[in-house]
What does this fold into?
Amino acid sequence: MKVGMFINTQFPEGDDVAARVPELVEQVLEAVNLQLPHYKRIHAFHLNKEPLTVESGLLTANGKLRRDAIAVQFQTQIDGLYQSKQVGVK
It folds into this structure.
């Protein structure tokens, strides 16, 4: 069962919006989760500042996700999502 999601964001450094993104995402997720059954709710998320690109090996030439490569590169963050879920901390 997946408990987290990855959101790829790109904002200029020093931009006020960039500092507020985690809070904005939490607000949106709260609204979305209210409409979902408990087993489909998003309990944790990770925001990545670097885009997923073909050059980084995380996307195919067609723009599809390379799930295995993403799982390897973000293993620490994924483990953290599951740990935060168990502890009840975001």
